Every structure is written in structure tokens, then in C-alpha cells.
Amino acid sequence: MDNENPIVTLFGLSFNVTNTIVIISACVIVFLITFICTRNLQIKPTGKQNFIEWVVDFTGNIASSAMSKQQSEKFRLLGFTVLTFVFVSNMMGLPLMLTIDDYQMWKSPTADPVITLTLAAMVIVMTHYFGVQEQGVKNYFMNSFVRPVPFLFPIKIFEEFTNTLTLALRLYGNIYAGEILLGLIASLAQSQGVLTWIVGIPLGMAWQGFSIFIGSIQAFVFTTLTMVYLSHKVEHEDSTDHIKEAA
């Protein structure tokens, strides 16, 4: 797990080859799953259509639990995209960790802090964008940073940075730690021949299962917090109505 990632420089910009490969691969996998599951849609869903509709409903429930029904309809597909991308990204390093000439060529994208920080920053910036779109610049600024009392303004600015860091580092820490332990278990299995294989293989399978569980939970948490942060930016006056509706 100490292997470096290959770096390529183009037009004065440095690109991490491994990160580029795994991010594109994650996007392609999500697209293929969605494409395959939405072919030949039927009024009475079966099989793969049942699966994709369940995922859409699941993310819709996440959105509706964080905001009003009207707002959740706008962002349910965003929730679907975030959930599926983060879930696939969390799983990619579990079945395979590829190293070529001491360069790590395959891993989970979310096991890299740069990628998780980028995802988190995109989410936070997006919440501001939709907040301005819903309320206008002046109302958004007043509702998000000045009200209920102006002296909280510095704290609310600081909160935007802490939200970004916690959203990113929670995801990164869990996925990276899982891959580190998988690497250690694999090293243990290969260290002393057949004897350590007998111990290492069941231990590795058990940790694989636990990592799938952790990766699923982290995808759910990331999506839920995305919807919560969005609700804080797009809803203010409607919050009372949402509480009544939820009750």
C-alpha cells in the first residue's frame, strides 16, 4: 500500500494517472448499470428494473426525509447519482488492487483524500448554487449567514469549511483504512506459505464482507449529508410546512 501513483504532466499540469483511470471507470460502471437496468421498461417492473426503481425510491426517501416533498422531487436524481457513484467508488478496490512496476494502478477512488475532498467541495459549492437559485443572492446571504443573529457570521463561514472537511475525511478514512487492512491480510497470507494461506484466506473474505458493509454505509451517509446540506440552503420559510407535512 506504500506504492506511488504515476504522474503525467500535460501543458504544465500534473495528472494522477491512477486517479484518472479509476474515476473514469467508476463513471462508466455507474452509466452501464443504469443503462442496462433501464432498457425495455415495463409497467409492472421485474428483475433489473425492480432493482433500479428500488434504488431511485431509496434515494428519494433520503431526500424527502431531509427536505419538503416539493424540494425532494427536484433533488432525488442528484441523490441517486451521488449514492451510486460513491457506492461504486467504495467497492472498486475490494476485489482487485493492481500494482505495476511499484506503481499502484487500481484502487478505490474514495481511498484518495484528493478525490474525497473534491467530491465534498463540489457538494458544498452546489448547495450554495441551488440556495442562490431558490432564494436570490440577497435573501440567501441573509438567511444562511446573517440570521438569526449577525454575530454568528464568522462561525457560519467556518462551518462551511468544517462541513467540507468532515464530509471528505469521514469517507476517505473509512475506505482507506479498509484497503490498508486488506493489503496487510494479503501480505500475511503470502508470508509463510500454506499455513498462512489457511489463516489469511478466511480472514480476507471476512474483511471483504465487512468492507462491503462499511462502503455501503458510507455511501448512504455521504448522500444523506448531501441532502441535509442542500435542505439547509434551499429551505427556510418552508421549514415549518415541512415539519407539519412530516408529522
TrEMBL record:
GO terms for molecular function: proton-transporting ATP synthase activity, rotational mechanism. One of its GO terms (cellular component) is proton-transporting ATP synthase complex. GO terms for biological process: proton motive force-driven plasma membrane ATP synthesis. Pfam families: ATP-synt_A. The keyword Chaperone does not apply. The chain crosses the membrane at residues 20-38, 75-94, 114-132, 180-199, 205-230. It comes from the Bacteria. It is a multi-pass membrane protein. It comes from Carnobacterium alterfunditum. Key component of the proton channel; it plays a direct role in the translocation of protons across the membrane. It is found in: Cell membrane; Membrane. Keywords: ATP synthesis, Cell membrane, CF(0), Hydrogen ion transport, Ion transport, Membrane, Transmembrane, Transmembrane helix, Transport. This is ATP synthase subunit a. Belongs to the ATPase A chain family. Its main location: membrane. The gene is atpB.
